[in-house]
Amino acid sequence: HQVSLHFKLEFPDHNFPLAHMQSELLTAFNRQEPRPSQLQHNVAAALNRIGWNHSFEYETPEGFSLDMAQPETKSAIEVDGPS
Q1: How many CB atoms sit inside 10 A of residue 44's CB?
Q2: Which end of the chain is more exposed for a tag (fewer CB within 10 A), N or C?
């Protein structure tokens, strides 16, 4: 689902190749519960300690899932690491 959102934003004049599966992709995406890693929790805590208040596991109005975000400043942090 997130790939289809990215495709629509980056290539607005093109059709997403899996557009015929859009409802199935959205359903599969919505079924998944966020499973943040310990590293993600540690990063969030460190950011809070330095005063970078944020929303944890934020979903944008477009449907993107962000690890940590400050929607008011349009800032986000994605943590890549062990699951």
Answers
A1: 20
A2: C
Taking the C-alpha atoms of residue 66 and residue 69, their distance in angstroms, rounded to an integer, is 6
**Which helix (H) or strand (E) is 75 found in, with range?**
strand 75-77
3-class secondary structure, 69? strand
Give the three-class secondary structure for 9.
helix
Q: CB count, 10 Å around CB of 1?
A: 20
CA-wise closest residue to 57 among 27, 37, 28? 37
The crossing angle, in degrees rounded to 10, of helices 2-10 and 22-31 is 130
